[in-house]
Structure prediction request, 270 residues.
Amino acid sequence: MSRSPMNDSYPLFDAHNHLQDIRFSADIAEVLHRARGLGVTYDACCGTNPDDWSAVETLASGDRRIVPSFGLHPWYLEQRTEDWLEILEAFLKRNPGAGVGEIGLDHALATRRDEEQAAVVQSQLALARRLDRPVSIHCRRAWAAILHELNKAGPLSAGFVVHAYSGSLEFVELLCARGGYISFSGSLTHPRNRRARACCVAVPEDRLLIETDAPDMMPLIAGRPPSANGRNEPGNLVVVLETVARCRERSMSRIAELTMRNARRLFRVP
Ligand SMILES: [Zn+2]
Prediction:
């Protein structure tokens, strides 16, 4: 972490991570301590399937700076039981500050089950609407399809974020027009990812978020990962912040401030 750009003045909000991941279970306290030391003050911690929802709930109940979300990610459709949706609703009702996520569509998977993915995402969008919760969305190569599902679901009163944005400029506009937030991850720091950097510049100030997606999506500093173990950490959000600030030609403090304000609005952190 010593090679990371420093941030000692402005608090940051990691708009999407997975602190419950098994890769953090041995040293989560130290990981969070390092992140807090680098200014990462809040985490939006997303569940991915019924087997990790309890771990997300436990983490969030022990630290009010961790905002939980519960959802079924398109990679884990097989993990769902017959009563998964009722279980999800129970988690959400028990945690009134929680969002719905991570949910979405992934058309880059080797085995695609598009109809099943669409049905699962639609039922969770309906739940978010009914319970008035913000939604964290995963989308890979399914941009027209996710927009179709959002339109079919109807307005999401509590809003939504498309995390680790990898779509085109055109969809930045379409998603923002629909009230969405666009979040950028460490993939923005990869030298060849010009498209993401162009999209990052195009997002309106009040729609922009930053995230780590830790333990995945390792950012690069001058083309190299900040640590050799392959595990991304929330503290690396500073690297994403620095890249966004450079792309948009704004100061790090300005980007820190506006992404914090946006994340607090979306995740309803007073
Ligand atoms: Zn994720």
Observations:
- The radius of gyration is 17 Å.
- The beta strands are 12-17, 40-46, 66-70, 99-106, 135-140, 160-162, 180-184, 208-210.
- The chain has a mean pLDDT of 95.
- The longest helix spans residues 114-131.
